[in-house]
Structures are given as structure tokens and as C-alpha cells.
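hey so u asked for the seq, here:
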Amino acid sequence: GRAVIVIKPFQRAGKVVDLPFQTWLLLEKVGFHLEDVMKLRLKHMSFWRVLLYKKNPNIEQIKHEYVIVCRKS
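ran it, C-alpha cells below
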């Protein structure tokens, strides 16, 4: 089978958590092989992210998401 996952990093306690990479590590452990990774820039931020950045202007902004394409062998 094939898995296509759209995922983006998130922030915890003001630090970016690399959820796409952690997801890939889990997929690799269960037997998936990477076919492609695409990094897509987000045109608009969600309402909640806009509020977060207004309250905390010094934290790093996340303006992209990833598409992970992998195949189970």
C-alpha cells in the first residue's frame, strides 16, 4: 500500500516540534519506504495561529506544511 500524509510542525512551550520528521521515523519502523517529501508554503495562517503570534511575537512562525509520500514493501 501507499500512504500520503499531510502534516505540519507545531509549537509546544514556544518551541517548534518537528512532527513531520517524527511521523516519518514511525512510518519507517513499521516498514514504509520514502518515495517523496514536498514542502508547501501556506498561503494563510489559521485563526488560532494568528492569535498565538499576536500574543507572542517573538516565537518562530510556522508557514509551511509537508506532504510525505511513502510505500509499504
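The longest strand covers residues 32-41. The radius of gyration is 14 Å.
lmk if thats what u needed
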